[in-house]
Amino acid sequence: MRRPLRRGFPAALATAALTAALTLVGTSPAQAALPTPVSAATARTYLASLTVAAERPRTGYSRDLFPHWITISGTCNTRETILKRDGTYVVTNSSCAATSGSWYSPYDGATWTAASDVDIDHLIPLAEAWDSGAGTWTTAKRQALANDLTRPQLLAVTDNVNQAKSDQDPATWWPSRTAYRCTYARAWVQVKHHYGLSVDSAEKNALSSVLNGC
């Protein structure tokens, strides 16, 4: 059974990863910070402006309608780009696959040293986006949401936590790490506001409850 590491894992492990990078193609500490969500005050303003509507029927939905992961640079696709961005001392091979590194999952506070234990979460799940308005979008706009590196829409997290979240919105799912919930709410509202997605009443109430305490 795999076991998450404590965030302060031995320095020797990071040193070993850095040394190994000398014979591989790419390595670095966390290359770029996750985009910082808007402030709680701004998120509250954004939330008040969002259209409140019941979720639409999921007729016709397919993840394939949100093309991902697309090529970002060279041989690196969106998943690989986020793994490098969110990880520490990530080593990649010539195909841009992460061969070692460390990833901290803010949803549950676990740290992993195998990329296979990490998923890239779509903060706004693609199915939730479909239900909230993306069903009427162009493919290009759906692709933009599914690969958005500018807003806090993509995040490296523990794989089974991401799978448990699935397509749920904040009416039914929040990160188990309560210290992250304000950040999660701010990010959720920011992304929905940017893309003009609606919220249902239960989702809005849950977001308001958290944001009012930020």
Give the helix/strand layout.
Elements: H1 11-20, E1 26-28, H2 40-49, E2 71-73, E3 76-77, H3 78-86, E4 87-92, E5 98-105, E6 110-112, E7 118-122, H4 126-131, H5 139-146, E8 154-158, H6 159-165, H7 181-195, H8 201-211
Antiparallel strand pairs: 1-4, 2-3, 4-5, 5-6, 7-8
Report on the structure:
With 214 residues, the protein is an alpha+beta fold. It has eight helices and eight strands. The strands form three sheets. The chain has a four-stranded antiparallel beta sheet with strand order 1-4-5-6, sandwiched between helices. A two-stranded antiparallel ribbon has the order 2-3. Helix 2 packs across helix 7 and helix 2 (40-49) packs antiparallel against helix 8. It is globular. The model is unreliable at 5-31 (pLDDT under 50).
Describe this structure in a few short sentences.
By secondary structure, this protein is α+β, with helices and mostly antiparallel strands. It contains 8 helices and 8 strands, in the order H-E-H-E-E-H-E-E-E-E-H-H-E-H-H-H. Helix 2 packs antiparallel against helix 8.
How far is it from the N-terminal to the C-terminal residue, by CA? 37 Å
Summarize model confidence as the mean pLDDT. 89
String of helices and strands: HEHEEHEEEEHHEHHH
Instruction: Give the strand order of the largest sheet, numbering strands 1, 2, ... along the chain.
Output: 1-4-5-6
What is the count of β-strands? Answer: 8
What proportion of the residues is helical, as a percent range? Answer: 25-40%
- Could you list the spans in which at least 5 consecutive residues all have pLDDT below 50? 5-31
Beta-strand portion reads: 15-25%
Decide which structural class fits the backbone. Answer: alpha+beta
What's the main sheet like?
4 strands, antiparallel
Query: What is the CA-based Rg, rounded?
Result: 18 Å
Helix tally equals 8
Give the overall form. globular
